[in-house]
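User: Structure tokens for this complex, please. No commentary.
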Amino acid sequence: GAVVSQHPSWVICKSGTSVKIECRSLDFQATTMFWYRQFPKQSLMLMATSNEGSKATYEQGVEKDKFLINHASLTLSTLTVTSAHPEDSSFYICSARDFGTGGQGIYEQYFGPGTRLTVT
Amino acid sequence: GQNIDQPTEMTATEGAIVQINCTYQTSGFNGLFWYQQHAGEAPTFLSYNVLDGLEEKGRFSSFLSRSKGYSYLLLKELQMKDSASYLCAVMDSNYQLIWGAGTKLIIKP
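Assistant:
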């Protein structure tokens, strides 16, 4: 099946610094990637939809200037958390959509393993 | 508005069968997904239903009734490793996934 990787898997940073998280589709081209955030014992919350070569579409309540998304190629999207604060500590998960080249095919989203961010 | 409902938590016994229900109201429908998520890990794909009926895959089966806005995930011969959260998600008319809050399944020996 399709594989999505994320790097780093966990990161600890100081308040006020910026952190970049990479999401890569390893064996397929992903025209669309999604960024989610999940707080403990809560469901996934979609933050933004990232389309290759264009600006990301952010969900209501998500600050686009704080969570910078770049989708420069068909296999890579990055999320940068700028000026991180302790309340940004969360589990960040990306997913990529593969339009029917294999596996379950149609519109399935493949998830990366997630990045656990802790801001001190 | 769009809404996905599933029970918050369920408990079952090892070796038994459990059915996790999901009801939905969305703007358009392009399929329903079930994902499994172990604590601290990302979701993994279990099933996809776009037509009415039952899809069977080993110990797991998923059922869909579009007219009723209803699906269930059936897990047979439960194993301890099945303890996880099970997420129901519906793809709407814009091909966006609308997520349920997840059902935490606890398996007891």
